[in-house]
Design goal:
75% of the residues lie in helices and 0% in strands. With 208 residues, it is mainly α. It has one domain (2-207). The chain is globular, with a radius of gyration of 17 Å. It starts with a helix and ends with a helix.
């Protein structure tokens, strides 16, 4: 059953909520803006409401399969140790994250994984997530760059989890996810260094 839950987590993680919502409006977000299927590009192109819906969907596609796995293995009538349960949830969370950035439905070309990573660690390390959200909001509010906030938080998450006494599974998963998030943000890093990255402050100013 473990492998089945990992597979289901990957398939749910592969659901491209941003693309689905944009298609409803007749827009293919892969061909506009940054080309990313995540909440930031949806917000820029289609507004806050659809951006928030995309964000919620991308978070829940990690939370739902992880909680389903937790419920099943706790109530399946078999003895599952806390260490085994932790490993199961970490594997399901990692699979959902990989589904988002490498979705089978889109020929493995997906998003950058920040929202889905948020969902993973909401289940595993909620205190670390709260710290990360505070830092993210502060960075984005002060700089206007969502990518900068995402990069900083993904780099520091492993440290917070380790300092808070997180399990080795959680520490490794946070490091693994952080590396992939940085790889997926390669273009953003280049634009940040070149001073050409789009700012949410400028977007807001141009729309007012």
């Amino acid at each position: 059953m473990l492998y089945l839950f990992v597979l289901i987590s990957y398939l749910i993680g592969s659901i491209p909520f941003g693309l689905i919502l944009s298609r409803v409006t007749g827009v293919d977000i892969r061909k506009q803006g940054s080309g990313n299927i995540g909440a930031t590009n949806v917000t820029r192109l289609l507004g806050k409401k659809l951006g928030i819906l995309t964000l919620v969907g991308d978070v829940l596609k990690a939370v739902v399969p992880m909680l389903a796995a937790h419920w099943y293995f706790v109530n399946a009538g078999t003895e599952v140790s806390s260490n085994d349960l932790d490993r199961i949830l970490s594997l399901c969370g990692g699979a959902a994250f990989l589904g988002h950035i490498f979705p089978i439905y889109l020929k493995f070309k997906g998003g950058k994984g920040v929202a889905t990573a948020l969902g993973v660690f909401l289940v595993l390390e909620p205190v670390a997530v709260l710290i990360s959200l505070f830092i993210f909001v502060a960075v984005v509010y002060s700089s206007g760059f969502v990518a900068l906030g995402s990069l900083l938080v993904s780099a520091l998450l492993t440290l917070w989890i380790w300092l808070l006494g997180g399990t080795p599974n959680h520490v490794f998963l946070a490091f693994f996810i952080g590396v992939l998030i940085w790889i997926k943000h390669a273009d953003n890093i280049k634009r940040l260094l070149a001073g050409t990255e789009k700012s949410m402050k400028k977007d807001k100013g141009s729309s007012e």
